[in-house]
Design brief:
Structural class: mainly beta
Number of helices: 1
Number of strands: 9
Distance between the termini: 43 Å
Radius of gyration: 16 Å
Mean pLDDT: 91
Strand order of the largest sheet: 1-3-4-5-6-7-8-9
Helix content: under 10%
Order of helices and strands: EEEEHEEEEE
């Protein structure tokens, strides 16, 4: 049985710019920004069922030279996330079957998110083991529809 694009809600399709991300630690109840106060990233849902997500901390520092030192490389790694895979939608749940990831612990897994679109704004949330801390957490993300390059 092949992929049926008619089962994808049309309002989900396309590119979305991340405008915020909140992290709630399940153990302490602490709530704070996810990667940063102003994440710089996008998620894209294609008609063929592939999705891409890439986001970085907007406060990342450029390496001093053309090649990052070990310390700089670690800091850069710890301030990004990126993955891709095929997705499917069941009601308010979107499932990502990850086949490539910045963090190999996600490769080959199914990641499930709750989603909602209101006009040109999308809200995604999930309860996961936070890949940055290793602790259970809720992530709440907000995206605006990407309408293309500015004129």
């Amino acid at each position: 049985m092949g992929f049926d694009s008619s089962k994808i809600p049309q309002e989900l399709l396309g590119s979305w710019k991340q405008v915020s991300g909140r992290y709630i630690d399940h153990e302490t109840g602490e709530e704070r920004p996810g990667l940063s106060k102003a994440p710089n990233g996008y998620v894209h849902f294609s008609r063929n069922g592939r999705m891409f997500n890439f986001s970085v901390d907007s406060a990342r520092k450029r390496p001093e030279g053309p090649r990052a030192t070990d310390e700089e490389a670690e800091q850069l790694f710890r301030t990004l996330l990126g993955y891709t895979g095929y997705y499917s939608v069941e009601g308010d749940q979107v499932h990502f079957d990850v086949d490539v990831s910045w963090n190999e612990s996600w490769t080959g897994t199914r990641q499930t998110r709750t989603w909602k679109v209101e006009g040109d704004r999308m809200y995604i949330s999930c309860d996961i083991i936070n890949p940055m801390t290793g602790k259970p957490a809720t992530h709440r993300l907000t995206f605006d529809r990407d309408r293309g390059p500015p004129e």
